[in-house]
Write a structure and sequence with these properties.
Blueprint: H1 10-30, H2 43-49, H3 87-97, E1 101-105, E2 119-124, E3 130-135
Parallel strand pairs: 1-2
Antiparallel strand pairs: 2-3
């Protein structure tokens, strides 16, 4: 007669499958869609159930203000194109464009792609001659 604790007993093979099936059904029920709003308690009902006074409904806020006008005008610094990108010329391009920072970008140079309003980008060629002025 086989021992009930024997690993070859049919119940020993079904137990892991049953545990897996139960765990799977619990996981799937957790992913079920939320209850419709009509079935959910309102915040006032939730506060009353918790013994707290209901709060006033939120009042609409004013929309966010429009962002300020750009602080960089690359067109105003186009006179630097064709000149050697020495410190004085680059600084003149920055002030003419109204930017707060400036960077000189060389051919093939790796650059960050984030846009920064107020940053002047001075593009130069292999001979350090300014070929383009932009913002960002």
């Amino acid at each position: 007669m086989p021992n009930r604790n024997d690993a070859s007993h049919p119940l020993h093979r079904l137990l892991p499958v049953a545990v897996l099936a139960l765990g799977l059904s619990l996981a799937l029920s957790a992913c079920a869609s939320p209850r419709p709003a009509a079935e959910m308690a309102s915040s006032a009902e939730q506060a009353a159930a918790a013994g707290q006074p209901a709060s006033e409904p939120a009042t609409p806020t004013q929309p966010a203000p429009m962002p300020a006008a750009p602080t960089c005008n690359a067109e105003a610094a186009k006179s630097a194109i064709g000149k050697t990108a020495d410190a004085a010329t680059v600084e003149r391009a920055r002030t003419a464009a109204g930017g707060h920072t400036v960077r000189v970008l060389k051919p093939g140079q790796m650059i960050t792609k984030e846009y920064m309003d107020g940053r002047v980008n001075v593009h130069v060629d292999e001979k350090n001659v300014i070929v383009e002025v932009g913002c960002g």
